[in-house]
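Handout, section B. The chain below has 496 residues.
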Amino acid sequence: MTSYAAMEALNAKAGTLAEALSILYWDQQSMMPNGGGPSRADQTALLETMVHDITAGAELGEAIEGADGDNTLDPWQRANVEETRRQYIRATAIPSDLVAAKSKAESHALAIWQEARPNNDFAAALPALRDCFNLAKQAGQAIADQTGQPLYEAMIDGFEPGLTVAQIDAVFDDYAAFLPDFLDDVLTVQEQRGEPLPLDGPFDVPTQRQVFQEIMKSVGFDFEHGRLDTSAHPFCGGTPNDVRMTTRYRDENFMDAMMGVLHETGHALYEQGLPKDYARQPVGLARGMVLHESQSLTIEMQVVRSRAFMNYAAPMLAKAFGKSGPAWTGENLSRHAARVARSFIRVEADEVTYPAHVILRYRLEKAMLSGDLDLADLPQAWGDGLESLLGIRPDNDREGCLQDIHWYSGAFGYFPTYSLGAMCAAQVFGAARDHLGDVEAQIERGEFAPLVQWLRENVHGKASSGSTEEILTAATGSGLRADAFKAHLRKRYLDG
């Protein structure tokens, strides 16, 4: 067996275990009874330790070095060696006992969060959150010491390789300066246009689920290799061959659940479009969360919130809910879908204010990691930050620092990728439009295949064969720029 083949075999073993972990995580959030938490913590800790033992093992290190000298490798194989090396360097920085402790703390914190959030009880969640934070920081510092990166960048690198604080600061500071005047202009124009006609509920949840699944199929989701369930926080998990999506429903408002479903469908399409020949190999994984979020937001923000999509979906939705009349036209539905408001909940925010929610979390993460913000002071800091960005303050922690799952699962460094993904989505969709011609007319006819195929060829199928910048430049002609996103917002909310 060649060194490269040995490396592939070890990657495949670790990748299979990681897939099992992903399914267990989905089960914990959607199906597992509350009493299963302690056992699940043991299960995930053991599996994560097994993955770590492989990815940080001497056998893999030797295989990487041997493969590095193999001149017969093709570009994808060469990229696989480099991606394996990158993961190996990060893995060897963290001892196995820290991996196990971190996993158990995250499982415990998730269980506590699931109870604390509906009860609006941050005090109950704080000890578990503090454990999660301290262990995530410890792991991040170990990686930083190994790689020479600053602490926060070492943590961000786990979600988006190569992304720096300087890059994030430049984009976020620019948007934070742009937002106040632009938001005022949007709200003024929106007021002049008048309120959309109300969509009178209730909307039966089983009916919501059924019609959303029909839309998912039309967009391109493969139900032979995936499913849709319910959880406290929408997410997309599982594996490329077994994608597990969730959303949450309210019978008085179907629009939020639909947006959540189609957002996660964008993630799912990316996973289902990854190259099968490199399954369970580092090079065959999604590049990073900026591109991943760009795919979810291409579907949700660029496509689903458009007038074209609502013209397509309106008859389907009206029929499903037994509705008729002017409220159920594509025009009126699109006004609901593109409604802008200063609001508290990130996952339900419009695309104009959404980046402010992410900027808030990014700033809080930096303050926590620098020691400038104690976790006990999060509710106050959250309210102050949101008031500064959007002029509103949450009345309770459920609408504030308890609303997101990320910190309670140890995902510090994840949040910045959301808004960078939105900016990337505008750039990607613009390139697709240039290539495909009148993509809006295709969407209005329910013809999503050309867009999805273009994404397959230019994003999904590239996996981790290049950097985010390389993949984005090949697809759009340049690296990440914020100007495409701003232009999109001006067109939709001021000129449209």
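Note. The chain has 20 helices and three strands. Compare this with the example in section A.
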